[in-house]
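This part of the workshop introduces the protein records we will be handling. The question running through the whole workshop is how a given chain folds. To make this concrete, we reproduce a full record directly below:
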Amino acid sequence: MLEEIFRFVNVRPVQKASENDLLRNFASYSATQKSPFHAKIEQLKGPDARSQASQLASERLDQNEQTSHLTIIQRAARGASHENSVSKAIQEAEYVLGQDLSLFLQSERAQFLKDMAWDRLYAHTLVPEKHPEDREFVYDGVRAIHLLELLATQDYHDKPLSAGELALVRAIIPSTVIPKISTLDKSLENHYSKQILHELNKTFEQFDALNRAIDEITKIEEAHKKQSRLINITNDKLNSGRTKSQDIEGFQVTRDNHQLTMHAPWTFDFTDQTYVSSSTQELLLRLNISRGVYFEDIKEIMEREKYQVASNYINSFPIVELNYVWNAEKFQKLLENVPVVNNAFLQVTESPDPGSASARGIQPLGVGDLLVVKQELDHYCTGEIAHIENVLQSEYKKRIHSRVSEHEETIITESEDLEENEKDLQSTERFELQKESSNTLENLTKIDAGVSVTASYGAVKMTAHADYATSQTSTESNQSASSFAREITDKSVQRVMHRAREVRTRRTLERIEETNEHGFQPNNSSNVVGIYRWVDKYYKAKLINYGRRLMLEFIIPEPAAFYLYVDSNKTIPGVKNSKPVPPNIGGRPLAPYHIDKYNYMDLISQYNVQDAEPYPTEFIYISASAAESTDKDANINIVKMYENKLTLPDDYRCIDVFGYKVVNGYNGTYLDCLVAGVNLSSGSGTFSEVQGTVPFTVIANCLGFNLSLVARCRISAKKHEEWQLKAYAAIMKAYKDALDDYNAQIDASQIQAGIQIQGRNPDLNRKIEREELRKGALRLLTNDFAQTRVGGVWRLNEEFSSLSTGTFAFPEIQINEALVEGKIIQFFEQAFEWDNITYRFYPYFWGDKKRWMDIFPLTDTDPLFTDFLRAGAARVVIPVQLAYTETVLHYMATNEIWNGGNPPTIDDPLYISIIEEIKRDHGVDVSDIPVCSKDSETPCLVKEWNIKLPTTLVYLQKDSELPDCKSNQAVE
């Protein structure tokens, strides 16, 4: 059975077609003149020239012209093509035309028919999907005109073009008829690409609105800072009878049960509309931000919203769209402002630059014979010595390899609650005797003399009288009483003590012990000598010629890159985890300064970080107060001085202080508060990251005052950096643990798998090589399918995504998309002889230098596959199917897939020569290949020989004799 070893081509430069062949086999409008439609197309300029030309061509084909008039010249050409000489052919043509051939060719009628035929052929070339049923009729008209013009220049005794030769005549289309593809051609942006840009613009508008709102809020904050930081609250305002919220000097104060609550002067109020635009007000309402919220909190909410907007947009589309917007200015501004976590950045490349293959410098390699080497396995033979193992007589040799991996983590959790109740019950009884004595002596003498008057509404009556009386009273009493009292005192003391000590215990002991033991049984009778030999393969090779082909050549960088990537990330039986991706921000390796309060939660969730420190509180508020009582008896103000301080936590810095004051006094009352050199009453001055303690001094001329201060403090840069370092260490540790766990599972799965067959079937290796090389060649040829015209429609950045999720979450085919993609796939799969590509791998040092250390050690039991894995580049020569030669050349010049029939030939001397040289060959059965000769058909056998291929297999020789250098022993 013949198996293929490799292919190669005997390529030579394309031979220039002779003038005679050009005249007979290729038709052109004129070497010096242009048709009316051609002249009109050449006047088109600018990025939309290609689309405008297509529009003009479509309109030209829609014109109601009498194309049936071409029938008469087609009849004349067919009649002439059946004659044996030019003179007879001319006579036949003149008979059909009804006039002299020379006069006809010079007539306005002939010029009209020629312009109509060629202009419509140009139009069909620009829009081949338009009225394709008329294209061959017009093409035949062009061929007929070409034959008649050729007859007028030939010698009478020459042989005219036969009917078969006339059918093979190719029309040459001037390259200026098809305007070049422009990278700025906006008409080529289909709905898909427009949607991407629309989403980018929409996202950037939200992003820009948030930035503007933050700027406006910052301006309001600065304006508030210029006002007095120390707000004066007078008694008359407090006692004005308003019991609910009231505004004092522009700041909201709430009195509830005589308790004052005052909003900070850096809180937002919707009354500050002089600084706030309508769009910002709408944004504040959408984010549920009301009055009384600190400016810093507002900006914090908006910054977090910015991160979410950018992150949601970037993570919403696949890599191909990321490539499309990567260089957009708005997209780069998003990345500059927001450190987004996205692994897709690791694979971002430059967006493809549209243009035809020819415009990008891809040209046919030439024309040559496709030579394929097929092989037939003959035998295996032992090669050179690989290793010699020696054991002396009575010696025992043993090798033990042991690997132990232990991991232990201990965390203790302890919680203690102690509750102590103490009760003291006391009871006291008392008996008391009380005695009371009292003596009373009373003498009473009464004398009553005088006048008695009785009056009524009538006359007054008056009478006189005189009375005398005396009495004496004496009283003595003795009282005794006893009382009994019992006093009970219940004393209860309850002490609750809670002692909490939390040390979580998580003890994980992982012990992996792998022992490999290799020994030799002792043999006391003689020494032990084991000779290991390399095994070589021997093949019988046959070189087969498959005939002449158009060849394309590509140099593909690192052809095994994708295979190695998939192989390193593939799912391995017994391995549940996937290989973790290194942490990155915007495609760059994660650094401590990348971590902030917005993205660290994404990183923690991505790598399942345990016991991560939360983001520290960025702002805290420290308060202090001062008061002097009012001296009610004083009749003048008294100068008072008071000193105190605000004590700040070690990791925070004071950035602002505000407060309010209540002062009582007579005329000339004042109170100034100086904090770290800043007079709060004036509102001027700044606090520059004051740390430790913030002293303040009160100087007042009053009867009494009450002062309350609040310091706003921000976390120090040092503390923030410490948090970043800790977060970075925790993330990287989690990543390393995940990677170690992944590698450990791989090792364990390999141990459990036991003995495995190394390598892969060589036929499968060849298939992998060809598929990867095919993918690379197609990407270079098509510019990664950046622009492809098929069926009259331009497709940009083709993804081949016709399979989508349907209504019921099942994979379903998008019919229209699949039909278009099917045309592209069919063309590229059928136009090239992918099974007959020839390739050669170049060494690793032609690849990325950063990957040398990884690529150089790669190996496989298949030596050819080892070359593939270690290749820094590969040279690939691809033969084109004979029937697709012109279609491929047309695609290379126009980026257009011709949709049937023979395409016109682009006016390129190379293309014309290629088409002229290549002839269709008829092959024979490869199972019975004849020896090549001048008259043999293809494929045919060129040569046979034996080849030797080294392998990585090792064979233990039966005896201890050294091999004879002059002989070769076959492996049984």
Notes: The chain has a mean pLDDT of 74.
